[in-house]
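User: Show me sequence and structure for the first protein, then do the same for the second.

Assistant: Starting with the first protein.
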Amino acid sequence: MAEHRASFARLTLLYAGAFVIGALSAWLWLTRVGISGVDAGIWRVNLLAGSSDADAYTRARIALAAVLALDRSETLYYTTERDESGEPLRAECRYLISGSPPPSRWWSITAYASDHFLFPNAARRYSVSGETAPLDAAGRFSAELGPTHEGDGIWIPTTGSGGMRLTLRLYGPAASLQQAPQSLVAPSVRRTGACP
């Protein structure tokens, strides 16, 4: 009887250990391993987002970090957590986002804090889009991103400190982008001024 209890205890510990290791490896995979896909400059697009071909990890990542994902024939989702110099984006720093409007029916760039939520701000401004970003004489848009704002242009306020992520959404992307998402001439994200 004592031998049976000892075997049961060992088996219970083995199963508990396997569960903990499995859960930890899944958490690490979902939160620490970069997304698969292709790059367009500093931006990465997951080609399986919203697809019926998406694997379980892709679906879990989207559930953790996004509200809804459509197939790439309808929407392309490009993300970045780095600026043009390769440095991680930080909420306490200021950046200039600029580029030509992407070839799509509608586009937007939204800033998210490291917890995957929007930055709370009194202005309730969380993104820039083709509707809100005026174009200059060369047909390019620009927007500031950061805790402070200089000038009278478009500004996406960030609060607090720590990492952040930008998501560029292209709704109704051009057929050429649907077939080769890496061909996007993506907006640049450049840090401006000193960063505390």
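Switching to the second protein now.
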Amino acid sequence: MTKKVLIFLLTISLFNTALFAQSFNLAGFHNYQNHFIIFDDGNFHDVENLPVQSFQVGGNCLAYVDNANKFKVYYNGEVQILTDILVDEYYVSRNLLVYKVFGQLYVFDNGKKQMLTSNVYRFVTGDSIVAYINANTNSAHAYYKGKIYNVENALTGHPIQDFEAGDNIFGYFNNNTKFFKVFYNGKLEDIAQTNDLITFKAGLNTIAYVDQSTNTFHTFYKGDVIDLDDFMPKSYKVGDNLIAYISSLEEFKVFTNGDIETISDFEPNAYYVTDSLIAYNEQGYFKVYYNGKIYELESYMPQDFQIQQSTIVYTDLNGWLKAFSSGRQFFVTKDIVKMFKLTYNTILINTTVNTVKIYFDGKLYDTN
């Protein structure tokens, strides 16, 4: 995100409650007066008279750096100052706000701020997990559901490689012990031991990995190791409880709910996996795989589309905004859309130079 936030951009958090399972209802934007406005459950709150430098919207909070470099969070209807010092970096997910300032790593969870370490070497975050290396003790830890877990102690050098977190899971390869390990549900498990690095990607309850010593494809899924293919895939991507991949035979496959299904007998032109959706271009057709079904959305591939959770939003050939969510396709607006942003199944829309609208709970809100 740039230091100066464009006046009409950015983010949000719920769509149509009749369509969406989860209720993310926050949004942030600048109005025509350059005030920073927070949209919360259908109500607008003018929280800053000057434009903020950056902001991010999560599932239950909105974090931002104000015009005076103060780092603030909007949570449960109130704005709190977390620090007067300019933060080095920050990330907001469905459940957590994680930020770093002068090497100190903090988490904001359920309205409470907690320091994880005073000297962080490296960290990764997910929706409900933070994995990090404490440079003071040269040890690795995980923050999960309000508790800090010791993962690796007294590391010699920095042997942990390919450190990656999914929504509620993280994995890594320890180059000293040669073990590929997964932390899940508060437990650390040794998955495989090999002299070759294991490549992997993490999602929700899922880590897909390739054992390069055998060129085989596997997944750690909800506590079990499952063999997916005897040969290395051409490519693979991970989402919420699912893995999409192109097999060595160029078949387009998906692993979901513990089963493997073939979507197509040939490789798509391109495919994208985010949360619970797989969007792909098959011979110029725009298609979506969701909840075990294939939906053909358009006979062309949109130039501009965004995916999150169970929703995909795109502009059609007329410049109108359309959406697919939870198995249903519909028009969001037939105004000519200049810009849009999807966040947690909510859409912020810029139709003209001075017009910003938010689609939430089946309504189109005019922000002016």
